[in-house]
Design a protein that fits this description.
By secondary structure, this protein is of the alpha+beta class. It has helices at about 5-15, 55-65, and strands at about 20-25, 35-40, 40-45. The protein has a three-stranded antiparallel β-sheet with strand order 1-2-3, with helices on one face.
């Protein structure tokens, strides 16, 4: 899933729960992706997408089954 799609999906969910969501512009330093506010409380979200490497998982499984882990 593209970054923009992930961010848009999370934004829609938060807004459906009554949050006011602001996208935080990207910068060269690490910073959160979204600011969500509700009832005087603020939350920041750093979005990460994890994609598993199927070949690496198969290799690790083979080592495990061989008793090497």
């Amino acid at each position: 899933m593209a970054d923009a799609e992930l961010k848009a999906g999370i934004t829609r969910i938060l807004e459906s729960w009554g949050f006011v969501v602001t996208s935080i512009p990207e910068s060269v330093s690490k910073s959160p992706d979204l600011l969500a506010q509700k009832d005087g409380t603020s939350f920041v979200f750093e979005l990460k997408e994890r994609l598993d490497d199927v070949e690496l998982l198969e290799e690790e499984r083979a080592h495990f089954l061989a008793g090497e882990l």
